[in-house]
Predict the 3D structure of the following.
Amino acid sequence: MQRTVFFISDGTAITTETLGHSLLTQFPNIEFTQERIPFVSDSGKARDAVLKINAACKMDGATAIVILSIVDKEARQIIKNSDAITLDLFADFIDTLEQALGVKRQATVGQVHSVANLERYEERMEATNYALSHDDGISLSYDHADLILVGISRSGKTPTCLYMGLHFGVKAANYPLTESDLEKQRLPTFLRRHKKKIIGLMIDADRLAQIRETRRPSSRYASLKNCHWEVDAAESLLRAEGTPILHTTHSSIEEIASRVLLQLGLQREMF
Amino acid sequence: MQRTVFFISDGTAITTETLGHSLLTQFPNIEFTQERIPFVSDSGKARDAVLKINAACKMDGATAIVILSIVDKEARQIIKNSDAITLDLFADFIDTLEQALGVKRQATVGQVHSVANLERYEERMEATNYALSHDDGISLSYDHADLILVGISRSGKTPTCLYMGLHFGVKAANYPLTESDLEKQRLPTFLRRHKKKIIGLMIDADRLAQIRETRRPSSRYASLKNCHWEVDAAESLLRAEGTPILHTTHSSIEEIASRVLLQLGLQREMF
């Protein structure tokens, strides 16, 4: 079975697509062709989108599905009149919210991914720059860090720190445990001072070897034997230091980031 | 008026919160206290969440709002029986989808931010590493780049490239125009070969000076005069080269990323 799904919004359609994905994962046996159509903010653009939608319905010989989030009533209605079945993320909930809050909405187009609040946006950019300048032990001064991820090479530290900067405005540094740290079985002194904001990331040796192999094929670095040694040494070091440990092998960066914030009790609003 | 809003999910609750934000921006006069409660995947955790919800209702003297996305029926129902008003992102739409598709769903918990598809996840990590190793002209070999952002320092290149790696699995490099490039009024030869995948980012001189001032206060680099010169020189260089230009001053990285992909005709699924 073949179906086309459109994610259509007056903004980037990124939220619409993400929510759409979470719905579509519930139907693993259907092959979905997916298309994101962003910035559909007026009737003209809505009509262009309808041409695409109706063409897809004809091509597939099956009704397309539209996941929709548009503030403008007229544009929204034009899409809803297409040949597709529309899930309207916006209209249904906004009505419920109006009733719950007892006030009318003030229609403003696709603000969620805009720079509506410049100060908050700058916080986010600053945190991203912080992650870059405190990645992989580049800078060892952690006074301004909200948190520090510690672990061996390729345990997931860097993408998680970048994600936390970009999406939570959290200043996340990361420090790669060195062979010397592992041999001494203790964290370096400059880290011990910040113990309350440290989380250790751990990964299975098999998975680690696989990841490292694609980076440096047939190296000692990637060998299963060495990975086992590093993983065991890192785990015992972190335990000895009393550092909270998160296992990343089966987790995405969103999941790791979410667990790190939970573990440290940091409540941060998402961007 | 003061209201507490909870974003509750059996996954990271990141999608739930993002969609929630887009709804809440429509009510700018209400002060919302927001809390994300992730990983609510069973009845026990749902009951813990209800304690928090009901406490907030009492504190505020106003009904809390829950934006909910939980697959497990029992856990979902426990939250719905709390004192809050619940917007159920999952249940309403999944029923509509089942009808539209004519098949029953296969309930699987919070897959959208999991590593369900390892191959795609690795693509994403590889693209993020690509952005890091091809940031700011570190590496000038662009054969594997899906796209190259070109612009003067602080025009938004780096965070946009990281975002595109993390969320679209797109290999995005960036090259900062140097004083010598600006004076010669042409792109360096190693870039000209990749012209089809280049997008120029531009920013207003006033905004640029403001951003640079926080980085290097009172420097020539940050001076309004120098920023004006760089912006004008970059704009004329990019025009002369026939490079498509995107203005980033009033755009978030999501918006810039979305426009870049649209401009280059790259259809990529979101992570």
Summary: Strands of chain B lie at 2-9, 31-37, 65-69, 85-88, 147-151, 172-176, 198-202, 245-247. Chain B has two domains: 2-101, 118-264. The radius of gyration of chain B is 24 Å.
